[in-house]
Predict the 3D structure of the following.
Amino acid sequence: MNRILLYIFLFYSNFFVFSQEITGKVIEIIDNEEIPVVGANVYWIDNSGGTISNIDGEFKLENSKNNSLFIISYVGYQNDTLEVGNSVSKIILKKDSELDEVSIEYNRRSSSVSLLSSSNVINISSEELLKAACCNLAESFETTPSIDVNFSDAISGRKQINMLGLSSPNILMSIENIPSIRGSLQSYGLTYIPGTWIESIQIAKGSGSVVNGYESISGQINAELRKPLVDDKLFLNLYANRMERIELNTHFTGNLSPKIDYGLYFHTNRKDTSADNNNDGFRDSPSGNQLNILNRFQYTNPQKGIVGFFDFNYVNDKRVYGENEYIDQYIFNENQNFWGGKSESEILKTNFKLGYVNPDIPYRSLGIQFAFTNIDMGSTFGNSVHDTRQISTYSNLVYNSIIGNTQNKIKTGISFSYDNYDEFIDNLGLNLFDISRLEKSIGAYFEYNYDDSDKLNLTAGIRYDNHNKIGSFISPRFHLKYSVLPKSIIKLSFGKATRIANIFSENQKLFYSSRQILFTEDSSPSDFSALNAEEALNYGISIINSFKFFDRDSQLVLDYYITDFQNKVVVDWETPSLINFYNLSGKSFSNSFQIQYSYNVSNSIDILFAYKNTIAKTDYISQGRLKNPLTPENRVFFNFAYDGPKNKKGANWKYDLTYNHIGKQRLPSTLSNPVEYRISNFSERLNLINTQITRVFSKKFQIYLGLENLTNYRQKNTVLAPDDPYGDYFDATYVYGPIFGRMTYVGLRYYIK
């Protein structure tokens, strides 16, 4: 009881509410006022896991071993052993006196909507990621209705995500609140974050906090990685699927000293062959392999109130794609007379984070983030080439404090980013583009939060940035949460975001076609500098109502968001054999409405139903206002999750089923193509079912078996003009559904706690 493990979260830990199974709030009473206790240690009695309270005194603790007793400890206060109960209570620490018994809620949900944050945040825990084959971050949203997932093209096998009707470049993608998947990584970056490394994901709809940057147009997705201090000592995951893809994930953790913990995370995947199930002459997905290594070091000094992380990540990824004969000849190093290409990526990333909380004044903290990235990516596509090298640094310094009392919190700081691009494009051997450039910015921000711990939580922030390409600009952000009734909440948000489009990495699928690149209709094809920065306003409202239905927990959530572009780089696919980039002239907007209902049927069964309607349109120079291509207007989602009772050894069955109905999507026009190379202006409606069953044999070992696309749907005409890939009408970008039909997979997991 006398051993204190004061583990202080970095400053970024209060930007999001993490989804854990045990939740509570630690406070002390001073002059009849409730003061949050920051850095209180919360851990299971068997030391199988632990966490600490954040700047608001709140904590979340995963109960993977179904423990019933946990311990609260803090310097200068009496330790106590508490029992998990069935209601939510504040935990009041008292000096030199016994603690009263406290009961808190045991929350089994692996995905939840934050009721505490002023912003609209969806929390996804590691348990939710186990419901599907989450081989990487791009595949981690199959059971989440707020994110749409689909293939980007019919050749690369790469998946892309959409939120609020807009593609992933409009989402600020961060790893532990450091902007990470941006620039050159927009092409394959999501596939370089293995799913087993992820501890939790936070999806923030609408403009995010000013602390995290100016780029979030439709929202922010933040992935928290596993922490060496609380991760399993050993974890092993093996995975194989019908497409002959094999993966291995291993985690090792330990400690170098009482204050330094480390974790070694290893991922590799390999696919030597690939099927052509739709018989179009092209492999349904690439062959290749990936090596991905992450080494994490965590430093904790409770006496001085310091915690730090240092990460080193190395990725080497190789892919070969194209016609069946091209891949066969590539393997045997013979002459290549068929359409195909290869992609080679080598990435080196280092992150450093250091946080300090004043032990005497815990509501004051200082933190710094620093990241360095070196990206070297080279790709060929038939007669086209896209080579890019990016060297980037990012730093962020933030100070947290209060004004008067803990109801009034502030964050202020300064951030700097530097991106040096060496980028070269050979478009079909017709046009050469050297768009090497330097982008750098410095910004300062201030954010105020008012929280009365009852009805009102308000966050208002503003940041000022100076960018060498954009100039000076201001980004205001506002979020408000108001509790109309004890279990009925309304959230409002407003924000402005700005970003520079990295058009070739964000639209790399254009190279899987014979489209010639133009930058404006009236100027020369090399006028890349004419493209302006993108600017957009985002408005949102969310209503959350939690209630009992037949004495079981249920929740109804209604969201409506409007994204209105002041300027946008229009990606015009409407003319076959051409792709045109130009500045928006007119309107571009996306209106997204979603209704979501979750219900706890029993202690073992949860269901989730959602309906989403998206109206996204853009004014094109030659075509007028059209619906954005490949953006479904309607989507119906249903998820059934079963987590059966466990025996004394911890063994049980788990089952998950996800149904997606995806409405019609507009396709770019092919009317000017020859008749044999035309397709409909709209896609078919899709009904997709994924399912997985898991047998947990013990707390150490489990096997899972899954099936994606149960109905065996295969899109027709995924590749136009496959018989003439070097001709004018070849195009593999009209993809709206599964390419290779039903896919089965199997895997095992092994843990040493």
Notes: Residues 1-20, 96-108 have pLDDT under 50 and may be disordered. The CA atoms of residues 637 and 660 lie 5 Å apart. The radius of gyration is 26 Å. The helical segments are 126-129, 324-331, 503-506.
